[in-house]
Amino acid sequence: MLSSRIEDVRWVDSFDLPSIFDPRIRLYKEWHDFVFFDRTQNVFGLLNFAVHGNPYDAKRGYGAALAFLVKPDGGVHTALELIPLSDLTVSPYNPDFLSGRVSVSYLANGSFNIRGKIDDVTLDLNLPVEAPPVTMSQIAADILSRNRATMGMLDAANDMAQVWDKWVELPMLGVTGSLGIGSSNITIDTTTGYQDHEGGRFDWGSVSGWDTGVLLADPSHAGEPRKVSFLFYRYGPSGSSQYGGIILRTPYGHEKYFASTFTSVTDSGEFTGPRGYIPGVTRVLYPDYHPLISETITFSAFDGSDSIDIVFTPKAVCTIVVAGLSQAETTFNEMYCSAALNATVDGQKYHGTIPCWFESVRPRRRRPI
Amino acid sequence: MALRLRPFLHLLLDLIEEDYPEQLQNIITEAKGITCLQMLDKDTAIIRISDKTIRVTATARKSEVNLRIYLSRDCLFRILEGKQTLEGALNSGDLEVFGEPPVLLSFYKVWERVLSLARTSPRFYFLTYQLR
């Protein structure tokens, strides 16, 4: 169904640097998100490598590297380093993000190499790309080809196209190597890696947020699909409209899309587990800030004889508050969840308790300026 | 070598004046009349906020100083990196602040405003890390 090839990663996943004459250049932002879970070591990782602001102005643009790790004992470890543009190389010709302290390199053998340090986190990881990249337009075209177009679908697609210059995912990555947290070192070896890459020229005040995530499934485990991902995108003048869906990919390569019109989302309780806050000054600026996270979030969807139920139980949360140029701020709640899956697609049943990355993004109240 | 406190404050004022002139005026309005003795490890600076300007000097008469803040570099970066809360730093004595409550509240507003600006300014971030 998708025309991309693994060989396309070099250009599809490269940085969409704006023209130096672009009037919205100050609003530029673009990043790689790498996500993985090692079931043997019980370690979750989210690594973000970003460029913010004018990429040609060292005074007003900067790079950032961020790590959100959940250790084998369940504890949260976060690290953030800003990188001066004078020490950062990104390009429209490849996905590389190269700095003196930490680097992401896309190698000729079709794998990513992440090496270096983010504060006290030491990385030496190799991530071979195991499946072709998927772009926002490919997902939209695929959904439109197999589902009746609705106003919600078209409005959300239109809103996303206005905001985002790039929205790409690499659905399957292997992850091997070592990960150091302080003085402890962990060997990582998993096939359940994932990457996405987003970028655009917009202020955070113009974005209403989204809920997205991936069940880091392993089809070699009985009953697990190849992958389950979801995206519910909020749009419209008040941000109250929402469109999206859940995509389940079977071990045989068939994809089933459950649109949000057939999906119910419910939640209950309040999460009380470990949290991290980034940047650290969030805790100084907002000492009582404690965004509400549900204890469980349930997605239920059906389409004819196919159905899916996922109960997400957050295990650890990292709250990232990003500031716009105006007074707007946006909260990213990055969650490592346990996802209890029960699905039936094409008469085949899928089930399991699967580690999951869940990202919930919402506007925060205006900051005190 | 780590930047000393007074040169840091001079550079910081230049930066705010250049990038956030309106915010500088708001800070002056909110905190005029405060003369703050700021210590960072063994570095000292006097921050004087008058009707129209903020000036950083080396000395002041004792009777002029109405706010005193004692802080170590380690504590400053533990707070900035979220490893220690402001409350924790105050309780442990790593951060000591002396002054009349209205003065403390005015200066807290300034600090909140400056930190808020810092989050949108990479220049501010990289300058701050020159203190370490």
Describe this protein's structure.
The complex is a heterodimer of chains A (369) and B (132). In chain A, the strands form 2 sheets. In chain A, strands 1, 2, 3, 4, 5, 6, 7, 8, 9, 10, 11 and 12 form a 12-stranded antiparallel beta sheet that branches. In chain A, strands 13, 14, 15, 16, 17, 18, 19, 20, 21 and 22 form a 10-stranded mixed beta sheet that branches. In chain A, 9% of the residues lie in helices and 57% in strands. Chain A has 4 helices and 22 strands. Chain A has 369 residues and is mainly beta. Chain A has helices spanning 9-12, 136-146, 151-163, 282-285; strands at residues 28-38, 43-53, 61-70, 76-84, 88-91, 94-99, 102-106, 111-118, 121-128, 134-135, 164-181, 184-201, 210-215, 227-235, 241-249, 255-259, 263-268, 275-278, 296-303, 306-323, 329-345, 348-364. Chain A is globular and about 55 Å long. Chain A folds into 2 domains: 9-137 and 165-201, Beta Barrel (AttH-like fold), CATH 2.40.370; 203-369, Beta Barrel (AttH-like fold). Chain B is of the alpha+beta class and 132 residues long. Chain B has one domain (5-129): SCP2 sterol-binding domain (Nonspecific Lipid-transfer Protein, Chain A, 2-Layer Sandwich). Chain B contains 6 helices and 5 strands; from the N terminus they run ααββββααβαα. Chain B has helices at residues 5-19, 21-31, 73-80, 86-92, 101-118, 122-129, and strands at 35-40, 43-49, 54-57, 67-71, 95-99. Chain B has a 5-stranded mixed beta sheet with strand order 3-2-1-4-5. In chain B, strand 2 (43-49) and strand 3 form a beta hairpin. The chains are: A mainly beta (369), B alpha+beta (132). The interface between A and B is medium-sized, with 28 and 22 residues.
